[in-house]
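Dear colleague,

Following up on yesterday's call, I've attached the two folding results inline so they're easy to grep. Please treat them as preliminary; we haven't cross-checked anything against experimental data yet. The first protein's sequence and structure tokens come first.
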Amino acid sequence: QVQLVESGGGLVEAGGSLRLSCAASGSTDSIAAMGWYRQAPGKQRELVARITRAGTTNYAESVKGRFTISGDNARNTVYLQMNSLQPEDTAVYYCHARRYLGSDGWGQGTQITVSS
């Protein structure tokens, strides 16, 4: 199994920045990719950004040019730098680990609130 611990959420004004971190532990060799999902009230959980072990990234259209995902394989940690935050970015953000085999891992979630 994989355990994920997130940090870095909080309250920020529109136009501001935040950085999320997610540290993985446990069977980290089984991780193929890590990423961030978010879920706003009344909405489905959606992929925000993902990075593979090889460094390939993909982003939701709504965050392209504003968010940057990066990873440190040696520390089994992934980061999400979020700039130009907008109220519509308000959500609970979840770290996710996709594994080669076995069940995926999820973090506990961290709240991000962007005030207008």
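Below is the second protein, in the same order (sequence, then structure):
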Amino acid sequence: QVQLVESGGGLVQAGGSLRLSCAASGRTFSIYTMGWFRQAPGKDREFVASIRWSGGSTIYTDSVKGRFTISRDNAKNTVLLQMNSLKPEDTAVYYCTMNPAGRSWDYWGQGTQVTVSS
């Protein structure tokens, strides 16, 4: 099993920054991709960003390109999401997730709340 624990959420004014962190533990010897999703009130969970564990290639949803940066620390099994120029529409619960074998997002964290005030 794999455990994912997020931290770093909070309340910030529009234009501000937050940094989310996700630490993976357990059966982490095989990680294909890690990523972040978010879910705003009344909306479906949506993809935000992902990073390939080997090589570090990244993917972002269009609405966060140029503002968010995903990175990883392989030695610490940690994935980070640096969020700059935050907007009220970024308000959501952010979830860390892991795709261990290149097929599906099998593991999820408990989520961390990000609130951006206007």
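For the second protein, one point worth flagging: The longest strand covers residues 18-26.

Best wishes,
A.L.
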